[in-house]
Amino acid sequence: MSHRFHAPVVLPADPACSLLRDAVVDVDDSGRIAFVGQAAEAPEFTGEVSRLGGILLPGLVNTHAHSPMTLLRGMGGDLPLLRWLREIIWPTEAKLRPDDVRAGMLLGSVEMLRHGVTTSAEMYFEGEQVVDAVLTTGGRALVAPPVIELPGMKWQTSLAAIDRWIDADGLRFGPGDRIELGYGPHSAYMLNPDGVRATAESAAARGALVQIHVAEAANEDVAQRAKYGSVPRLLDSLGVFAGRTLAAHSIHLSDEDITLFAARGVGVAHCPGSNAKLASGIARIKDLRDAGVAVGLGTDGPASNDDLDLWEELQLTAMLARLATNDSTVLTAADVLLMATRGGADALGRPDLGALEPGRWADLVHVDLDDPAFAAGVDVPDEQLLSNLVWAAGSRRVRDVWVAGEQVVADAEPTRVDRAKVQAAAADTAARLRA
User: Fold this and answer.
1) HSE-CB for 125 with a 13 A CA cutoff
2) 235 neighbors 257 (Cβ within 8 angstroms)
3) Does the structure show a pLDDT above 80 at 435?
4) DSSP states of 199-252 as a string?
């Protein structure tokens, strides 16, 4: 059934980051947006009408996550990246069973939806369990099972399994195209060149997105940089940038690397919270954006962040960029809000997400104003209202969320699953992993 949402403020995430006052968003029977505009200009409508207080905006897009790691939250939290991975995370992940991954992803998906994050780009093992969890909560995900070299794990086996899955089910499936499958070669330092090249070829042949960690920590890829000059140069030579590519982190880049990203249309997932917590560095966001690189925001995993609240990444992105450039104007509230919505969709190569525009999926977030952050109300200048939303309120007042026009969060609680049961199941699993 078609549905009209009427709100005092609609924030469509157009390139200008406009605010529409007394506006409506119409959603058709398929779950896509049919009209966005001021109520006075809206066409006649005969479907269901919801009158909302506050602000209606697009669902946020988390461009890089390992959400099942909710089970590992808090483990090794004071270690640098490589020690954290080798001493804590990988040994613990070796204990995971398939249903454990589902339990962790259920919790992660619930956490994101309650924060207004409707889409996440996931790189994790047991992809079928990740998909099942997301379809259960009603969220949306781009799922890239990892291709990696670890003891007892051959990259050829992992790659062949992804090929078979995409060939059987297609790139996108589920109600409202909630799932997109892709490839997750972990990194140039955890997969040899033959594996990277083969993965790139499989992805390009199927039009699939490649999600890969790039230049996250200065000491992770010393051997690759010494041999090839830079990791982006290596990945380009192996064909990774010939198709759709999402480069997560991308902190330690040269000017030439950034130029290469721009020329090849590589998207970047900027994860400032995780990068700061692990002391990995501050990405060159101003330079990337100036070069025309599509930059979205990501939380990374909830064991290195340690949450899945993308609103915090908006604030950190602006603050760290301002510190890095000594310029308080380098990123505005509007800039980072667009990075978390439209920009994230651009980085993932998904023009059907990230904005309230006709033809895009109706992934909507309702923010109410019952909070000190909005004590001045909505009748303030646009810039001030955006500032209050980004800097003062964040996720705190997210009340309702729709994905493909279906309500999946109502009054801050998931509609499809029992949050208490999801949390209890994750707690039981986490306790077993610690034993």
Assistant:
1) 17
2) no
3) no
4) HHHHHHHHTPPEEEEES-STTTSHHHHHHHS-HHHHHHHTTGGGS-EEEEE--S
Tell me the two tokens of residue 15: 């390139």
pLDDT > 90 fraction of the chain, expressed in percent and rounded: 89
Average of per-residue pLDDT across 19-43: 98
Angle (CA) 253-191-173 rounded to 5° is 90
Rounded-to-integer distance, Cα 58 and Cα 355, Å: 5
By the 8 A CB rule, do 13 and 337 touch? yes
The pLDDT of 10-30, averaged and rounded, is: 98
Give residue-wise pLDDT tens across range 106-126.
Answer: 999 999 999 999 999 999 999
Q: Which residue has the tokens 């956490």?
A: 111
* Tokens 């269901």 -> residue: 48
Using CA atoms, how far residue 53 sits from 22, 46, 57, 282, 397, in Å, is 10, 21, 12, 38, 12
Alpha-carbon span 412 to 419, nearest angstrom: 11
pLDDT in tens, 177-233: 999 999 999 999 999 999 999 999 999 999 999 999 999 998 888 888 888 899 999
Tokens of 74: 């808090």
Which residues does residue 128 pair with via DSSP β-bridges, in sequence order? none
Q: Distance between CA 269 and CA 212 in Å, rounded? A: 10
CA distance 211 to 201: 14
What length does the chain have?
435
> Three-state SS string across 150-170, please?
ECCECHHHHHHHHHHHHHHHC
Of 388, 364, 409, 401, the closest CA to residue 11 belongs to 364
Sign of CA dihedral 62, 64, 70, 76: negative
The number of beta carbons lying within 10 Å of the beta carbon of residue 323 is 12
Partnered with residue 184 across adjacent β-strands are 146
DSSP code of residue 43: P
Residue 90 has what pLDDT?
86
Q: How confident is the model at residue 78 (pLDDT cuts 50, 70, 90)?
A: confident
CA gap 372, 374 in Å, rounded: 5
Provide the 10 A C-beta neighbour count for residue 222. 10
Question: Collapsing DSSP states into helix, strand and coil, what is residue 103?
Answer: helix
